[in-house]
Amino acid sequence: MKRFIYSIIALFSTVSLGFANEKTEEEIGKFNPTELAMHHVKDAHEFEIFGEEHILYLPIILWTDKGLVIFSSKAFEGDDSAKKIVEKDGQNFIKYHEKIYYASSSANAEGSFIKMEKDHPNNTRPWDFSITKNVFTLWLAFAILAILAVSAGRFYKSKKYNGVPKGVASVFEFLVVFVRDDIAIPTIGKKKYKKFMPYLLTVFFFIWLVNLFGLVPFFPFGANLSGNIAFTMTLALITFIITQFSSNANYWKHIFWTPGVPVPMKIVLAPIEFIGLFTKPFSLMIRLFANITAGHVIVLSLVSMIFIFKTYLVAPVSIIFVVFISLIEILVTALQAYIFTMLSSLYFGMATDEGHGEEH
């Protein structure tokens, strides 16, 4: 184990020192750690496979005023400053902060074709259905999970199954039983947990897998999907919808007329409980987004210390901490999947609780 850790440290040190050697003194002086962190955690229209010289450009798919427009993101060639116009089908497009806009008729003093209003772009945008890094990773995770699940299902249906799972099925069975016995049944109950199991298993495996993808820095992984607020918002919204449509009369009674408390307190608690309907999925969204993004930012900040202090003496300490945080991040990937699944299951249990034994 020690040899493995030492090898990783040596590898990171070599890469970091090599990267530093490629920079001139002037370039290092202009190093911006915030820009580096944001570049790695945000979505993009291309994959950097081996630096800026080897890039896989993804397709840009737009629904515009003149219909469907499709072209390669190579047309922008990584320019994210809105200074380069791409003309397609008689329309001009620009890319600014990895978002596609219609270009303004003329450039401003800085050469940008985007109009700013209170530090926000004022250009109109087409409907953007582009395949970005996050979209690609989402499809990849879906494909891998589908293949593994189908393979495990076929094994259980085959004649090879003699009561003892093997291969992929052995891993799936352990995790499925864990979600069932340690998450679903304790929070929802034995009578009603089964109808929620497909969703709970899906979010558990899916979140865990995309979190792991985010730790792998090379193609076809490296996308920070769980660090995208739209992704976590969608998952939280699905949990919210399932909770409300599964709720019973007892659930709404506890929200608008809490049993067992004086009437004045019922009136005070009703709006608080109603607001809680929305704060619960909101906390799900923020928790997953913030924890995953924070892990990436910490690692990048530790690497940035080498270039901030402009000395190789910081490299060993920086790399040791990077390896340490990276090992913790492996645990966090599973922990965040567990927390999201557990809280979703808990909300489902609260919504379907019949209130038996309330007199106690």
Question: How does this model look, in words?
Answer:
With 360 residues, the protein is mainly α. It has 2 domains: 59-131, no CATH class; 134-352, no CATH class. It has 10 helices and 10 strands. It has helices at 2-21, 25-29, 33-41, 133-157, 168-188, 197-215, 229-246, 249-256, 263-309, 315-352, and strands spanning 46-48, 55-57, 59-64, 67-72, 86-88, 91-96, 99-102, 116-117, 120-121, 127-128. The strands form 4 sheets. Strands 4-3-10 form a 3-stranded antiparallel beta sheet, with no helix packed on it. The longest helix has 47 residues, at 263-309. The protein starts with a helix and ends in an 8-residue tail after the last helix.
Descriptive key words:
360 residues, disordered N terminus, 10 helices, 2 domains, three-stranded antiparallel β-sheet, mainly alpha
Low-confidence stretches: 1-29
- The helix-strand sequence is HHHEEEEEEEEEEHHHHHHH
Average residue pLDDT: 82
Helical coverage, percent range:
55-70%
Count of alpha and pi helical runs: 10
Question: What fraction of the residues are assigned to beta strands by DSSP?
Answer: 5-15%
Largest sheet: 3 strands, antiparallel
The global form is globular
| Computed Rg | 25 Å
Structural class designation: mainly alpha
